[in-house]
Amino acid sequence: MAVETEARPEAGSAPQMASKGTSKVPAAENTLRILKLLASRRGPMAASQIASTLGLPRSSVYHLLVVMEANGFVLHLHEEQRYGLGISAFELSSAYSRQEPLSRLGRPLLASLVDALGESAHLAVLHGRDVLYIVEERAKNRPSLVTDVGVRLPSHLTASGRAILAALPKSQVRALYPNAAAFTARHEVEGAIMKYSALSSHLDRVRQRGYATEHGEVTPGFGSIAAAVTDHLGWPTAAVAVTFLEDKLPAEQWPALAARVQKVADELSVRLHGRPAK
């Protein structure tokens, strides 16, 4: 197989990118764009491919890659003439996990929501086709729930998962649910979502009303309402949900409860330097 050969600049030429003036800002922005692009790919990329994908001059990309390589954020694979993420990028990822910013920011907001409503609340993120619960705030005198921290459940069964899925592009949802084997159920309930067409129709309704619901699919007798937490691009980062005994909360009260949940999700979006869902 022919290997693409690319000339790399000498390390001494890299400081040109850090010259005085407004060039400092685009250099920083383009460095982050390169890191995000490499993180989104399954394998290393050629510098020319990075440049064409991001619409950047090749010379600028080469200079940035030299600086990033010197600091350990990218690794140059000489035989392949490709660039991949370096150990410093991995260390950033590990540090993010250790600091748990999403949990730390979300926990006090959920605690306030629980105090105001008297119902249990939780925060979940998408993990493959599942949702992973990272915060649970249990209301006083309310029963324990299956949605404890560290528990994973199929996203299409939960209000949290549905809120996140509804905020994803439809093509992404389809990729997560390519066939009937992707669907599962915990209990036999009326109108269970067991195929993509049913999921797609349900997510359309979630988008229309702005929040997601679940009726006993996780635990019989319990309902949930959830809203998505979004980043600065509008991409769903997590979901805030409240769970309650359905016979204690009439259906006509669900929209008002949903508004409270959405307000907390919006606040968490802002705290994550994101933007509230519209």
Could you walk me through the main structural features you see in this protein, from its secondary elements to its overall organization?
The chain contains nine helices and eight strands. With 278 residues, the protein is an alpha+beta fold. A hairpin with a 4-residue loop joins β1 and β2. α1 packs across α3, α5 packs antiparallel against α9 and α6 packs across α8. The radius of gyration is 23 Å and the shape is elongated. The N terminus is likely disordered.
Pick out its properties.
alpha+beta; disordered N terminus; 278 residues
In terms of DSSP E residues, the strand content is: 15-25%
Fraction of helical residues = 40-55%
- What order do the strands of the largest sheet run in, or round the barrel if closed? 5-4-3-8-7-6
Radius of gyration: 23 Å
Query: Helix- and strand-based class?
Result: alpha+beta
**Secondary structure tally: strands:** 8
Helical stretch count?
Answer: 9
Distance between the termini: 49 Å
The biggest sheet amounts to:
6 strands, antiparallel
What is the succession of H and E elements?
HHHEEHHEEEHHHEEEH
Mean pLDDT: 85
Shape: elongated
Note poorly predicted spans. 1-5, 9-23
Short description:
The chain has helices at residues 24-40, 47-54, 58-70, 87-99, 101-117, 159-166, 170-176, 196-209, 254-271; strands at residues 74-77, 82-85, 120-127, 130-137, 152-154, 212-215, 222-230, 236-245. The chain has 278 residues and is α+β, with helices and mostly antiparallel strands. It has a six-stranded antiparallel β-sheet with strand order 5-4-3-8-7-6. The chain has a two-stranded antiparallel ribbon with strand order 1-2.
